[in-house]
Design goal:
Length: 147
């Protein structure tokens, strides 16, 4: 699986070197939430005529490790590539993709969900990516229990 992720990232890098402008933006560069709550991360991208060419890879970057949050290739979610850490906790809004938006709801937040998240969008001709930070604080009731 790690080999597949490396190939996808290589494809993104190579495609961006030979392509025109394709823009991916994040709607917020920083998110904050409490443990056990839910949050929606959102990115936007340039809409193209043939949306069947769109592929999306969103991941958490921990040092040099890539932890896949969401992978979508030509109208299909590739759940096998999702890291077990996120299994059953990510919901995507497939309708939003047609509008140039990636909306991912991450549920039952954990403190180890904190970190840098990157979402890369690519087509056969171009690609782009954007990143955001997520900070998860311990639930208030758990803090009281620790004191």
């Amino acid at each position: 699986m790690e080999k597949m992720i490396c190939r996808i990232l290589l494809l993104i890098i190579l495609t961006s070197c030979v392509s025109g402008s394709f823009v991916v933006n994040v709607t917020q560069t920083s998110y904050q939430a409490e443990e056990n709550h839910n949050i929606t991360l959102e990115w936007t991208f340039t809409i193209i005529d043939d949306m069947s060419l769109i592929s999306v890879l969103c991941y958490q970057k921990i040092e040099e490790k890539i932890v896949v949050l969401y992978n979508f290739v030509h109208y299909f979610e590739v759940s096998e590539s999702q890291d077990e850490k996120f299994s059953g906790r990510v919901q995507s809004d497939k309708d939003a993709l047609r509008e140039g938006r990636i909306r991912l709801q991450l549920s039952r937040l954990r403190t180890d969900d904190s970190g840098l998240y990157v979402c890369a969008v690519f087509t056969n001709y171009s690609s782009g990516s954007a990143k955001c930070d997520l900070k998860i604080t311990a639930a208030a009731d758990q803090l009281r229990d620790r004191l």
